[in-house]
Every structure is written in C-alpha cells, then in structure tokens.
Design a protein that fits this description.
The protein is mainly alpha-helical and about 475 residues long. The termini are close together. The protein has 19 helices and 6 strands.
C-alpha cells in the first residue's frame, strides 16, 4: 500500500479546476462585510505594562528576547507621558502609534491565547514561509539578512486595512527584531482566499526590507529591463516605483506556488465586491496607490507562475491568465490609458526580471534560486487536498511529512474546485496548521531561529523520499 502511495505521490497531477471561484468570492465578501473587530487597543499605559509582563512569560524564549523584552524596555523608557504623546501625535494610528499598539497586540494575543486555534495556525504558516526563505539550506552561499532573521509575530485586527505587515526596519524603532503581520479578525474563521495574501506579506515585504539594498536594486533592474525592451507609456517608472508591492507578489508565488496568484485574484474580487459592489479586478491604477492596478497584478501572478519549476506551471499560468482576462477592460495608470498588449508584455518582463536576475544584494543569486515551487511541492499539495475535504480526527501518520505552505496551497486550490465545502476545508486547514505549530521547535524552550536548520545531512538520499504518509 505504501509503495502505491509513493508512486501516486510522484505522479500526482493537480486538477486545474477553479469553477468554485464565485463561491470563494462571495465567501470573502461576507467576511469583509462582517467588519469583525479584534481586541480593543491597549491604550491604558499601566494596565498594558502589567499585561505585557504577564504575556511575555507565555512566549517562547526567542520571542521573549527579540520582541517582548526590548519592547517593554522601550515603553518603560517612554513612560506614561511619552506613551500618551505618541498616541496624540498619531490619532489615525497609521504611523508610530499604530506600530506601537500592533507590537503590543502581537505579544498580548499570542501570550494571552486570543483565538488560540487560528492564531497558532496563522503563526505556523508565517513561521514556515519565513523559515523556508531564510534557513541555511535554502540560502547556501548567501549571507543572512541585514535586519531580521526571526519569523514575524502575528496578530488580528484593523479589518478596514486588510492584511498588512510592519517590516523589521519599522519595528526596529521600538528595538523589536521581528516583523509584525496582521490579518482581519474575520479571516480567523472565514474568507479562505485571504490566506493567499500571507506569503505576499511575509516572503514579500518582510524579506525585502530585511536585506538592505535589495528593493532599490530590484527597482533598478525592473526599470532598466523594461527600457531595454522598449516598453513605453510610462510603464518602466510605474512598475519600478511600486517595486515593494510588485516584488512581494512575485515572492508570494515563489513560496506558495500558483495558489498565491489565483488566490489573490479571488481575494481582490471579494474585497472589491464588498467595497464597490463589483466582483472584478480593477483596471485603474491611481497615482498614489503603491500597488500596481489589480489587473496588472493578476497578469504578473500568471507570468510568475509560468516561470516556476514544476511540470504544470505553464498550464496553471494559462488558467490564471484566462481568469484575469475576464476582467480586462480599459487599463488606465496614473490617469493615462495603456494598451492592453503592452501592459501584459510589461508584466511578463517584470516577473522574469524579479525572479531570475542575479542580484548583488544576494551575493549574485536570484530570488528563484532561494525558493521555488517544484514537483515535490505540487505533489504534496495535491495529496493534501483530499485530506482537507474530510472530517474527523487525524491519525498520527497524517501529522507530519509536509510543510505549512503545502497545507495553505492545498486549501486554496481545493477551495476553488467544483462543489468544494469551504468551511470544512478552512477548519481542516486550521487544524493541520495547529498540529504542526505544536511541534515547531521555535515555539518550545530552545532558542531556535529557523526550524529548517534542524535537519540531518544524509550521505545517501533515496530516489523516492517519503515526504508524506497518507
């Protein structure tokens, strides 16, 4: 039986079915419209300090020393008056006050057990994605990032802002050595496709800001490549000026495979349906928006998927591009009409430039050399899709052999398939991630920066390694 399953693992083919897209969009829309709020902002200084000291002890050692202790020390230096002044100076809580309160929430929510199942599941996928990009095995020949090598700490809140992150260069203001990632509270129980945004935040913004010079180098590469290909209509500057968000989209695909690209399309449609009543990708890109227009991000995801190292990359790219084409109308960027063919061609060039250019800031390595989605990843995710559609308790043999990224990728692609039960899939995804979190060494008594570094280096590697037992 095991031998048969192993052969199935090698030959498993993902069913390219996204016919449940409209149901997924409606699922996101309802979650967004619920406007579910997270815990109240901890604005009472003395009460907050007491809670932080108590919550600190519940965090693993690595987060006590890199997040909780330095943050508490900084608040102690500020004192009550300084704390209040920060709140007064940033009434909208979009700058220093927002950052300060979000760091506090990440410590409190993890330490006090807020929404424990979903929080641990969220933390596990964030830790896995970060570890996958920064472990010694994946970064062989590349130095550690300049700022943060600790996986981000998670929190729930600010539903009006959607998913977002405070990168390590921002949290350093409070001497914190990890990024903070936030999801709207509704996505702890609903809105499956929102989880496709997590790699964008973690493997995108947090990684890009941790390596000094990486963002600027990527911006220059993109601008120069587009200019060399005679792409006009202001597109070289348009893409380059949005490199943070653009490269984050590409890094999301590198770390979660096609699920990142197709998932974001549905997620954007769901959010647009909630905010404007139209479940479509926007074709307009305003000047002040740091993101490329939705339609361009869709094409970028399709073309980045085409460059991945698994056999069905091209087939998935065609499915994704076809899905984006459904929303294509009149592209307008910075108030200027853009020819659709030129826009598509520019997205293709940008995807290739970001993924495959060897970068000085990465010791002459390209991003796709550090992380990629390969046949092994797609095979594991394919087998997990069946498991995610079942109910009941998990057996011991189902609790190991795969990574959190595989679980989330499987949940998204299975959720998009015909007649999928989104709630069963979502709940099973959380359960699997929770089980994985329970054995994550970084959340134990040891000071472990990257669990992926704890591995045996074998003299001989079997031809058909047992990646997963099902």
């Amino acid at each position: 039986m095991q031998g048969m399953l192993e052969r199935n693992r090698i030959t498993a083919v993902t069913k390219l079915d996204v016919s449940n897209m409209s149901v997924c969009i409606e699922n996101v829309k309802k979650a967004v419209l619920s406007n579910l709020q997270g815990p109240a902002a901890p604005t009472d200084y003395h009460q907050l300090m007491g809670r932080l000291h108590a919550a600190k002890a519940k965090l693993p050692k690595i987060y006590q020393e890199t997040v909780a202790i330095p943050f508490i020390k900084e608040l102690d230096k500020l004192g009550q008056q300084g704390f209040i002044e920060i709140l007064i100076q940033d009434p909208s809580r979009t700058r220093a006050a927002g950052l300060m309160l979000d760091i506090a929430q990440s410590i409190l929510q993890n330490g006090e057990g807020y929404n424990a199942l979903a929080t641990d599941a969220f933390q596990e996928i964030v830790s896995d994605l970060y570890d996958g990009f920064l472990s010694a095995e994946d970064r062989e020949g590349i130095k550690e990032p300049d700022l943060s090598i600790i996986p981000a700490l998670v929190k729930w809140g600010e539903p009006e802002n959607g998913p977002y992150t405070w990168p390590a260069d921002a949290t350093a203001v409070f001497k914190v050595q990890a990024a903070i990632v936030s999801l709207p509270p509704a996505h702890a129980t609903n809105g499956l496709l929102a989880w496709s945004s997590i790699p964008h935040e973690v493997c995108g913004h947090d990684i890009l800001h941790a390596d000094l010079g990486l963002l600027q180098e990527l911006a220059n590469v993109v601008r120069n490549r587009l200019n060399s290909e005679n792409i006009g209509q202001g597109l070289p500057d348009y893409w380059a000026s949005r490199i943070d968000e653009t490269a984050s989209d590409v890094l999301g695909v590198l770390n979660l495979g096609p699920a990142a690209a197709i998932g974001l399309i549905g997620y954007f449609r769901g959010m647009n349906a909630a905010f404007s009543g139209r479940a479509q990708l926007r074709n307009e890109g305003p000047t002040r928006d740091p993101h490329a227009a939705d339609i361009l991000r869709g094409y970028l995801g399709a073309y980045a998927t085409a460059l991945l190292e698994f056999d069905q990359a091209g087939a998935w790219a065609e499915v994704i591009e076809s899905e984006v084409d459904k929303d294509l109308s009149n592209i307008k960027l910075n108030g200027r009409a853009i020819d659709a063919n030129t826009a598509k061609r520019s997205a293709r060039i940008v995807a290739e430039a970001i993924m495959k250019t060897k970068l000085a800031s990465l010791e002459n390595h390209s991003l796709d050399e550090i992380q990629n989605w390969r046949n092994e990843d797609e095979s594991v995710a394919t087998l997990l899709r069946t498991l995610l559609q079942t109910t009941g308790s998990l057996t011991d043999e189902h609790r190991s052999g795969f990574y959190a990224a595989h679980v989330v990728a499987a949940a998204i692609t299975e959720g998009l398939s015909r007649e999928a039960d989104l709630q069963v899939i979502f709940n099973r995804m959380l359960s699997l991630l929770k089980l994985m979190h329970g054995t994550n060494p970084a959340w134990g008594p040891l000071f472990v920066q990257h669990p992926g570094d704890i591995s045996r280096h074998l003299l001989y590697h079997p031809a058909t390694p047992n990646l997963i037992s099902l």
